[in-house]
Amino acid sequence: MKLRIALLMMLTLGLIPWSSAIEVAPGAVSLIRTWRPGDDVNNGSGLAEKTFVHAFASLDRYLGLCLHSQICRLSEKDRAVLTAIQETLPLQNEAHSGLIFASEREEPGTFIIDGELKIAKTGSKVGAPIYLNRDLIYRLSPDGGLQPLALGEAVSILVHELGHHQGEMDHTYLDVLGNKVALVLQHHISESPLLPMNTRLSLIVINGDTGRDYPQILLNVFDQQYDLSSLFADQMKCHFQLVPLPILDEISVKEQKPKGVMIHNVHWTRFSEASPEDKFVLEGNLTKFCEDGSTFKNTNKDHKARFTFQLDQVGAGTQAQTWVLKADSLEIKDKYDPWWKFIRLP
Question: Is the residue at 24 inside a domain?
C-alpha cells in the first residue's frame, strides 16, 4: 500500500508523467467542445476546461451572489450589465454555442486581437460562442507542473466575454466587473487540496449565502472533475428527539430534510488502512438549517460530513498513466457524534 501511495504522490507532484487526455467517467461533467480534438502529452489538459464548463453552467447562481451582496459594491451600470447577462443566459444556452476551446499555438492568429494575445474572445451578440485559448488556461505551479485556472478566474473571464454580448466594448471595465463577481464568489469557496499548492486532488465547496440552499461540491481527481452536489444533498438530514444508546447508534424518532446546509472546515483526515485498497477520507463540519420558524440549527462539531473514496490507476507504465475515481467507491455520510456516543459500557 505504501508503494501505491508513494506513486500517487509522485504523480500528483508531477514528478512522473500523468494523463492529459480528457476522459468521460460516470459522474463527470458533460463533454466540452474543442476546436481541435486531442492535445500534447503532459500539458495538463482537461481540468481547466471542466472548470470553465462548470462555471458557465453555474453562472446564474454566481451572478446572484454578487447582485444580492453589498460586498460586490456595484454601480448602477454594473448592476444593469450583470442583470442583462443573467437574464440572457437562457438565450445563450438555447443557441447551443457554449464554449469552444482552441489553441493559438496550433492555430496562429486565432487569439490575436489588435496585436495582443488574448485568453478569450467572442462576438457582440447574445448567443455568440465564447472561444477560450487553451494555451493560457493553465499556469506553472511552484513544483514545475501545470495547474488549471481557479473557478473564480474562470467566472471573471466569462463575465468579461458575456459583457461584450450586451454591447459593452470597454475591456478594462469588463475586467473590473468580472473581478467583482469573482471576489464575492471567493468568499463562498473553500478548496481542500491533498497537497499544498496543488489542485490535482482536491475537494471544492461553494456554499450559498442564505442558509436556504445546499452547497455545490466538486471533487478534482487529476484531469477529472466530479460533481458530488446531488449525492451530498441526498444524505443530509435533521436529527430530532434522539434517544441515546451508548453501544448502538442513536435512534432518531423524527427526521426531515434540512432547508439548507453549509459545510466548512473541510480537511483530509487519513489514508485508511482498514482494507487492502487505499481509501481517501475527508471530513467537514456541517451547519444545517432545520424547521421553518424555529431557531434550530446544528452548528457544533458533532455534525460532520464524511467523504470516502478510492482511486484506480489507469495506463500504468505508459505516458497516459493517471488515476481516476474508482467506480462505486464514493461514499458520503452525514455523521452525528454527540458526546454521549463516546461512552461505552464494559
Answer: no
